[in-house]
Amino acid sequence: MRALNYNAAIDRIVQFIKEKASPGVVIGISGGVDSATTAYLAVKALGKEKVLGLIMPYYENQDVEDAKLVTESLGIEYKIINIKSIVDAFQNSLNIDLDRKSLGNIMARTRMIILYAHANSLGRIVLGTSNRSEFLTGYFTKWGDGASDYAPLINLYKTEVWQIAKRIGVPERIVKKKPTAGLWEGQTDEGELGISYKLLDEILWRLVDLKMPKEEIANELSIPVERVEHVEKLVKGSEHKRRLPQGPSFEDLILEP
Ligand SMILES: Nc1ncnc2c1ncn2[C@@H]1O[C@H](COP(=O)(O)OP(=O)(O)OC[C@H]2O[C@@H]([n+]3cccc(C(=O)O)c3)[C@H](O)[C@@H]2O)[C@@H](O)[C@H]1O
Ligand SMILES: Nc1ncnc2c1ncn2[C@@H]1O[C@H](COP(=O)(O)OP(=O)(O)OP(=O)(O)O)[C@@H](O)[C@H]1O
Ligand SMILES: [Mg+2]
Predict the structure, then answer these.
(1) Catalytic pick among 66, 134, 145, 160
(2) Is 215 a known active-site residue?
(3) Which of 155, 68, 141 is nearest to 111 (CA)?
(4) Contact 112, 146 (CB under 8 A)
């Protein structure tokens, strides 16, 4: 993996948040490391009065204690908003078959609506928590947790987020947790992605950033080329999630310039 100057990277993120989000921010706090790291960096940049944390469980007591550990150790204002009644109302009103992934996407999009309701009414910015590993593999809900105004971690791989989390004092318990989207019981990122973040990041770095041929990556990492192809498939299949909606262009149809 690339070797980053972490102290300089932390300073750069803090500066970025200061520049982009001076009115204050709203962040969804799950109890996981990405949102914890984002919140810690936001407090460094803006001070605790300008950071509002929203804890939005669907399942009973879902990681609420870990999320509170984050907000209370930072001393930021927070609200707990249970989204079960909202998500269930969607499900009951739709009269379509929703498998667990589709229902999970409704949870992620419901959280997005709640974050923007607060940003709108308080004149604040929504800080997203996506990292580069998720972004490149499409491991997020389009317009759900993938939607935000600024995403300070989006150019950092998950393994780099862990390094930064440790350095800025995110509680060890949170750093050591298995990453999960928490959309259904027993879900883990690495289980659903079919690869560990450690190997995923090693492959993504070579495939996307260094544009190395697949066989060379497999040789260098001593893995079957199928592992690299698996990651390539995730990247290619999620291209649509990394851009705004497209339409046909009409430049060649202009009759009078
Ligand atoms: N070629 C194409 N061009 C343009 N749009 C295309 C498309 N193919 C699908 N689409 C659209 O994209 C939709 C599918 O994308 P999407 O709705 O996101 O749904 P999808 O990618 O199927 O599911 C989201 C994935 O992200 C994971 N997730 C979600 C939330 C949080 C986290 C986390 O880590 O915390 C992880 C979740 O577990 C699941 O694996 C399709 O229904 C369609 O509307
Ligand atoms: N229960 C929740 N309450 C508030 N926000 C949530 C909740 N679940 C998910 N989110 C939001 O969705 C984001 C995406 O979830 P994701 O699981 O990728 O990140 P994380 O939980 O912070 O870290 P990890 O990936 O290690 O679990 C979270 O960072 C958070 O902003
Ligand atoms: Mg999580």
Answers:
(1) 134
(2) no
(3) 141
(4) no
Res 92: pLDDT: 95
pTM value > 0.80 = yes
* Residue 50 pLDDT > 80: yes
Two tokens, residue 140: 């997020």
Confidence check on the interface: ipTM exceeds 0.95, yes or no: yes
The residue whose CA has the least distance to atom 8 of ligand 2 is 30
DSSP character for 179? P
Helix intervals (H) in 123-244: 132-137, 158-167, 172-175, 189-193, 197-204, 214-221, 225-237
Q: In terms of Cα–Cα distance, which of 87, 84, 76, 83 is closest to 35?
A: 76
CB 108 within 8 A of CB 145: yes
**Most distant CA atoms of the chain, gap in Å:** 65
The response to whether residue 112 sits with its C-beta less than 6 Å from ligand 2 reads: no
Q: Which is the closest atom of ligand 2 to the Cα of 181?
A: 17
> How many A from CA of 139 to the centre of ligand 1?
7
List phi, psi (to 5°) of 241: -80, -10
Chain Cα centroid distance, residue 177: 16
Yes or no: say if 141 and 108 are a contact pair by the CB < 8 Å rule.
yes
Name the DSSP letter for residue 151: -
Residue 49 DSSP one-character state: G
